[in-house]
Amino acid sequence: MKLIIAFLICVGLSVSAAGWYPAAEPEQAVLSGLAEDGWEASYCSSVLWCQTLDVVVKDTLAYIAMCNGLYVLNVVNPAQPAFVSQLYIAGGPSWDISVESGYAYLAGDDGKLYVVDIANPASPQQVATYAAPDRIIGVDVSGSLAGIAYGGSDSSGVIVLDISRLDSIVEVANYPADYNMLKVAFSGSLLYAVGCAELWVIDPSDPEFGRVVTGNYPVDLSIQDTLVVLADKSMITPGWESFLTVVNVADRLHPQILSSYSLPGDELTGVDIRDTVAIAAAGTEGLYFFSVADPTQPRMLSLYTEDAQIGRVRTVDTLAYVLVVFTPYWDKSGADSGENVWPGDIRILNVADPSAPTLVGMYPLAAPVTGLVASDGLLAALNDHDIGPDVVLVDDSDRHRPVIRGNYSTPGSGSAGQFVDSLLYLAARGSGVEIINVADPTQPALLGTVSMTNPNDIVVRDTLAFAVGDTEFVISDVSDPTAPRELARQSIPYMGRSIALYDNYAVISDGNNPRNLDIYDITDPEHPTFTGRFSNGAPLGDVAINNTSAVWSCFTDGIAVVDLSDPANPHADCYFQLEGAPADVCSIGPYAIVACDVPGLAVVDVSNPESPVLVGTCETPGYAFGVAADSEYIYVADHRSLIIFQHHLFSSDVS
């Protein structure tokens, strides 16, 4: 479970339409606070949200729980959903959402229930929280009551809350469980909850509740009168089957299973029922439509398939709102030819005839952000997956209102890069080092290419480019970016993961066995000379230079601070353990800024390389893969988005 930092910031974002990206997104408020270790950091903005988790549709608006918080769409015209607002919540993924009487309630992975005032949907405001014993996975609200399903390593169960006063949310009832509870839903005065192998039927005024054992793993439920339909994953035969399970709850203390319809695969992720039709979301299998007019014998009406993985489905009248997690077989040539193919989206289907559902509209989302490159006023969000563009160019001249300007795709995938003036040097696995003119970021243009099979990192100094790949270290003269000239190509017996420059030396991190940090003398760029090596048993990541030290991210082992003052004999000053697994590192002043899976961001003072000090940690909703920083801001690629923080590291308040 990801832990929350002490600051929670809720803002919107200004984004312009740029090629494949959604329409304009207006800015809202900005708040700041303290990280858990006393380091002050302010959230500025985020862009390129890409993971949906649940959706509720009220009137003409769709409220979507995303990894980063709340996302609101106008669906008055289902053929053209339009962006309304977004609200960043730093509490990790918002697993579930309920909307009632002008408020949205979001289930936080950090164990908090977030209450958001949506009276003005264009400017939602977080107004209250409630802390549960462990992470909240499900939430539903009815009148003055809220039900939450919580579960984690410490405790699990279902809690009923009195929310009549948001400034004083009170626990009404608590039903502990021996396993994680995953989803709750009200129907009338009763609360229904599902968890590992069971369905519970709860009357909050009665400590006694009904339960039925399904024998499987229900992950979602939907209620119609006295019927409850479950998305029930197999616990015994993973990868083989799931079940659409129908339960009669007319007798709440003695619910009875009426039927269990077997479906292929174990990807069942959601279910919804409309009248006598149940819709089951089944991952890459698609959407199954069933008639449950006879609940003892569900009858399949149709299977709606697309080249996508379905997450959740919710129906309103004759429309089904479908959350697509990603499109697994994205073809870059298809995007270049203008085909309407997206890495993830929200789709709206007409299900008036469940035997022949049809696509009405779609709202595209961003591709994953797995790395980034920063310069003064322009960011490049990188994507090394085979879905979506490899580079999205973001104008961040106003850090609180970043604007999407354009995107760029290669035959390979973007893994790292560096800006030099109006040029972006991109290490593009599968196609080489590409030199891209971004003077007009709305129309990035390829100027030249350095031939490499799988480059992983690139650094440019003056007119020289130094790149490392799976088996080679290449130095090129890029004084003419349209015709880069190879100066040296050095074979290396490992995968060159990362490269940094220290004086007249290139420091190369080996991302594979034997896990070395190799140093080459590049005084003569046409004849680089191996100088020294530091070996480490931990899996290795990126490297950054801080004064005379190399700060080396070591995945599960934290960071290593390596003394480079004698390049022929590098040695470790220390190893510094972090809570999470570092993936990337950069350096500003005396600080190493580390991107980790948990908590997301760590700042370490390495001014004394033999005794580093943790300055603070900062939560991000996803898992941080890339980081960059300047004298005032930190930029994080956390897979689910690109986030900008103001770090205040050089203010007088930072010890």
Secondary-structure map with pairings?
Layout: E1 32-34, E2 40-47, E3 52-58, E4 61-66, E5 69-74, E6 82-88, E7 94-100, E8 103-108, E9 112-117, E10 125-131, E11 136-142, E12 145-151, E13 156-162, E14 170-177, E15 181-187, E16 190-195, E17 198-202, E18 210-213, E19 217-224, E20 227-233, E21 241-248, E22 256-264, E23 270-274, E24 277-281, E25 287-291, E26 299-304, E27 309-316, E28 319-326, H1 332-336, E29 345-350, E30 358-364, E31 371-375, E32 378-382, E33 391-395, E34 403-408, E35 413-420, E36 423-429, E37 432-437, E38 445-450, E39 455-461, E40 464-469, E41 472-477, E42 485-491, E43 496-502, E44 505-510, E45 516-521, E46 529-535, E47 543-546, E48 549-553, E49 559-563, E50 571-576, E51 582-588, E52 591-596, E53 600-605, E54 613-619, E55 626-629, E56 633-637, E57 642-646
Antiparallel strand pairs: 1-2, 2-57, 3-4, 4-5, 5-6, 7-8, 8-9, 9-10, 11-12, 12-13, 13-14, 15-16, 16-17, 17-18, 19-20, 20-21, 21-22, 23-24, 24-25, 25-26, 27-28, 28-29, 29-30, 31-32, 32-33, 33-34, 35-36, 36-37, 37-38, 39-40, 40-41, 41-42, 43-44, 44-45, 45-46, 47-48, 48-49, 49-50, 51-52, 52-53, ...
Describe the structure.
This protein has a domain at 371-646: YVTN repeat-like/Quinoprotein amine dehydrogenase (Methylamine Dehydrogenase, Chain H), CATH 2.130.10.10. 1% of the residues lie in helices and 54% in strands. The chain is built from 1 helix and 57 strands. The strands form 14 sheets. It has a 5-stranded antiparallel β-sheet, with no helix packed on it. It has a 4-stranded antiparallel β-sheet with strand order 3-4-5-6, with no helix packed on it. A hairpin with a 2-residue loop joins strand 3 (52-58) and strand 4 (61-66).
